[in-house]
From TrEMBL:
Gene this protein is translated from: LOC115753390
UniProt-annotated stretches for the region Disordered: 1-35
Topological category with respect to the lipid bilayer: Peripheral membrane protein
Composition skew (Basic and acidic residues), residue ranges: 11-28
Subcellular location: Cell membrane; Golgi apparatus membrane
Gene3D superfamilies noted in UniProt: CRAL-TRIO lipid binding domain, N-terminal domain of phosphatidylinositol transfer protein sec14p
Organism superkingdom: Eukaryota
Xref: SUPFAM superfamilies: CRAL/TRIO domain, CRAL/TRIO N-terminal domain
CRAL-TRIO domain span: 144-318
Protein name (record): Phosphatidylinositol/phosphatidylcholine transfer protein SFH9 isoform X3
Keywords: Cell membrane, Golgi apparatus, Membrane, Protein transport, Transport
Main location: membrane
Annotated family: Belongs to the SFH family.
Coiled coil start-end: none
Amino acid sequence: MSGEAMMAMLDDEKARRSDYEISDDERRRARSRSLKKKAMNIASTRISHSLKKRGKRIADCRYASISVDDVRDAKEERAVEAFRQTLITRDMLPPLHDDYHTMLRFLKARKFDLDKTVHMWEQMLNWRKEYGVDTIIQDYVYDEYEQVKSCYPHGYHGVDRGGRPVYIERLGKVEPSKLMSITTVDRFLRFHVQGFEKAFAEKFPACSIAAKRHIDSTTTILDVQGLNFMSFGKIAHDLVMRMQKIDNDNYPETLHQLFIVNSGQGFKLLWNTAKSFLDPRTTSKIHVLGTKYRNKLLEVIDASQLPDFLGGTCSCEGGCLRLDKGPWTDPEIMKLVHIGEAMYLQKIKSYHEYDLEAELFAPKNISNDVSREELLPEVRKGASDLVHWIPPCDKNRTLYARQNRGKNGRSRSFLQCNNAC
């Protein structure tokens, strides 16, 4: 064979190999594009399906999964469902507020007027954003707490016969001038908001689990013995008014009953005048009592749950209002609270990548020529491209549906995150 013929044959063989390599490379790229497209389609389908389910199904009771009875009125349920659909349509229902009883409380506050309730809800969402309420439990440190308690005795102590937390204030022992020398109005209001958030994060859930039924309201006792309105002061009065506005606007229908004890004739006269301007539904919750209040309180609160200074038999060491006694201090109950919260968050995160990962591998979704191991990385990427999520979880409790990565970079489930953080 001549040299020219040999060279031509080698060139031809080289060309064939190049064509084969290019073809093989193209096949790999095409397969990769196919995997990516398949993953994006699956991620998109799952997200759309989850959002569709969220749009149609009414929110469950937050702790129904751990033996909490959730009895509902059919008419109220229809009202909540209509309200919920309106909020979803207007993009005003963050997943963490997608709760049946929360929406019901707002509807009750506006007498089931849908337009007024939507407006109230919108104002609440704006206030929470401006005030930084979603992270106030973790972010806000009230250093003067112990000093404030010494001149403003208040706190939670035990539960009533229905399992609701009992909140007590001894207004007659408040020292307004001393209080304002220790703290400021703004700092105290933030402390007040933080207390409400803790009630919804810890106290109400713990009481719900202990009583095995949904609880999101308190029985409150105001002891006004020794209260002098003349010495109460304008700043203290304004503080109380601002607290009431925050409560009414953003935490409606959380008062089950209010007992005002040790009230004198002057206070009773003032109340009889004021209640004529209030909604009858509100006044029906308020009981203004004199000094003979013990039997009335014992009708709704067991003596063992009532401090001795209010006629009960409890005398906690260090003072009943300092102990914070209740189901929320029981470690076993709080474990269930955290588990229940994690389970609830797993429901509302159904359109997040964790759910995509968990539900992806049904046989009908994957063709025979594609392995799960090949498709999973693409699905994760497809989901992260499709979904914008929110920042890292709290180190003590999983309060928010947030993406969290382990040290090896792999996604962790909410329960894993809760245990590891």
